């Protein structure tokens, strides 16, 4: 059994979902204004999942001058108690600054999170869904807590977030008791796959190994056409039967003497082709391709770029820590190229800020224009993704940064940063030791990441940074 918290700003619909999960009208029945309920954890159920739900619902109704402060405190407690967080937004109302604040709290906790977009049945919810990517919490799961829509998907998303083992683990009282009351020493702020720095030897960059590339994108973006042109032959056969897919496999290729393994997405294509736009992209198929790859070429249709699915895919690639390159395809169809290109570049930076400097190339899979340049960018991004910075250089840089723009004081005490080291590559991952990692604002962590990116020339790849307590 695990513990789940529903977190979000007032009025997004937390109570409604809470009632659905806990199966009782708790928020309404129990709530006496000004009185704090003592029982805050309830049994919850969702199909085959059994869990505890931490209740923050109703708290916002208690009149208080420090409403925001209290909500924040309550949210922090709920987050601390939870194994998984359902971060809820109102897709109809769109993203507000309050959403951003709460999202920061959630991200800071480093806990598994499901971004839940409520009221998705409403008119105008589409824009809110799109907007939700800005939170950097991954792909939103659309539901209607009121009408019960999207609840099966929510169940799947929860299982995915915490993993099957955890989701279906039996009650273990002993383990619960053994768990420390305070959060562990390490706070992972961005990224969650940084392990013990001593555990991993960073391998040197090896250009003789085949470079693994996946080509992903939504149906009809032009993936198959591109692969065929690259390979110079009709390697991807079109299947006669609807819905039949074959397992994805890799195809060996060579580019300027460099050995390449291309992920053959024929299966993916045929399936999408048949079901056309009715069905959303199969995330598991895309994931398989993405996990196979080191570099992922995300094919956008330049005539209809930045659709919701494009962003979902890009988000997946980034979250999986792969080296992304965008190919704006069908460039042969574009007339006012300068204008369109400027627009595409602006959107890339704005909509995918996690990977500042992301490389994007215009191509035509059909005529072959731009493929060479695309491959140059693939090789370069791959090299950056493998980049390692010496501890000496890192700390000389860090010293200057901390002197010129020190971390803020929190509750009257200045936060101190001591030391930084790179603990992994593919993508680059760093650990910073500092006083009170839990108090370090997210904005400062971003500042460090952006600084690293610039100073050590790592544009366009995900960068992981975690904080540790210094002794
Ligand atoms: P996939 O579903 O991503 O594999 O897309 P396809 O490769 O099957 O391409 C979808 C459609 O776009 C087909 O009709 C292609 O002929 C067309 N197409 C693909 N690439 C280009 C391109 O570079 N230029 C133009 N004009 N059309 C393209």
UniProtKB/TrEMBL annotation:
Binding site for GTP 1: 8-15, 55-59, 118-121
InterPro entries with a match to the protein in the record: AAA+_ATPase, G_ENGA, GTP-bd, GTPase_Der, KH_dom-like, KH_dom-like_a/b, P-loop_NTPase, Small_GTP-bd
Keywords: GTP-binding, Nucleotide-binding, Repeat, Ribosome biogenesis
An annotated Gene Ontology molecular function: GTP binding
One example of a Gene Ontology biological process annotation: ribosome biogenesis
All copies of domain EngA-type G, residue ranges: 2-166, 211-386
SMART domains, A to Z: AAA (SM00382)
Transmembrane segments: none
Subunit-structure text: Associates with the 50S ribosomal subunit.
Functional description taken from the UniProt entry: GTPase that plays an essential role in the late steps of ribosome biogenesis.
Family membership noted in the UniProt record: Belongs to the TRAFAC class TrmE-Era-EngA-EngB-Septin-like GTPase superfamily. EngA (Der) GTPase family.
Protein name according to UniProt: GTPase Der
Organism, scientific name: Paramesorhizobium deserti
């Amino acid at each position: 059994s695990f513990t789940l918290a529903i977190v979000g700003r007032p009025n997004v619909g937390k109570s409604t979902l809470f009632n659905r999960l806990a199966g009782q009208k708790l928020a309404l029945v129990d709530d006496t204004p000004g009185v704090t309920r003592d029982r805050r954890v309830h049994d919850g159920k969702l199909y085959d999942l059994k869990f505890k739900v931490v209740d923050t619902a109703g708290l916002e109704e208690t009149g208080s001058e420090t409403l925001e402060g209290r909500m924040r405190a309550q949210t922090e407690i709920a987050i601390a108690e939870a194994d998984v967080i359902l971060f809820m937004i109102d897709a109809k109302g769109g993203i507000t600054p309050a959403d951003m604040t709460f999202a920061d709290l959630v991200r800071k906790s480093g806990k598994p999170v499901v971004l839940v977009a409520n009221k998705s049945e409403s008119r105008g919810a589409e824009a809110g869904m799109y907007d939700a990517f800005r939170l950097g919490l991954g792909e939103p799961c659309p539901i209607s807590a009121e009408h019960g829509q999207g609840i099966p998907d929510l169940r799947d998303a929860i299982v995915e977030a915490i993993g099957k083992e955890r989701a279906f683990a039996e009650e273990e009282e002993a383990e619960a008791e053994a768990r420390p009351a305070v959060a562990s020493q390490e706070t992972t702020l961005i990224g969650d796959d940084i392990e013990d720095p001593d555990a991993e030897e960073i391998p040197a960059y090896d250009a003789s190994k085949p470079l693994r590339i996946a080509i992903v994108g939504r149906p009809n973006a032009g993936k198959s056409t591109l692969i065929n042109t690259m390979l110079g032959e009709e390697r991807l056969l079109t299947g006669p039967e609807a819905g039949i897919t074959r397992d994805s496999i890799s195809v060996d290729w060579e580019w300027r003497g460099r050995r390449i393994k291309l992920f053959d997405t024929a299966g993916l294509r045929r399936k999408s082709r048949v079901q056309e736009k009715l069905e959303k992209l199969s995330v598991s198929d895309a994931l398989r391709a993405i996990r196979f790859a080191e570099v992922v070429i995300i094919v956008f249709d330049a005539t209809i770029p930045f659709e919701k699915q494009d962003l979902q895919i890009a988000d997946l690639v980034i979250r999986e820590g792969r080296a992304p390159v965008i190919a704006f395809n069908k460039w042969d169809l574009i007339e006012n190229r300068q204008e369109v290109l400027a627009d595409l570049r602006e959107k890339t930076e704005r909509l995918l800020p996690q990977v500042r400097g992301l490389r994007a190339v215009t191509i035509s899979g059909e005529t072959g224009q731009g493929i060479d340049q695309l491959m140059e960018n693939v090789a370069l991004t791959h090299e950056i993704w493998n980049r390692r910075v010496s501890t000496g250089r890192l700390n000389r840089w860090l010293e200057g940064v901390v002197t010129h723009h020190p971390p803020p004081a929190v509750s009257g005490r200045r936060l101190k940063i001591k030391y930084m080291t790179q603990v992994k590559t593919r993508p680059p991952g760093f650990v910073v030791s500092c006083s009170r990692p839990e108090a370090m604002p997210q904005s400062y962590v971003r500042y460090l990441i952006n600084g690293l990116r610039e100073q050590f020339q790592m544009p366009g790849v995900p960068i992981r940074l975690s904080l540790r307590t210094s002794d």
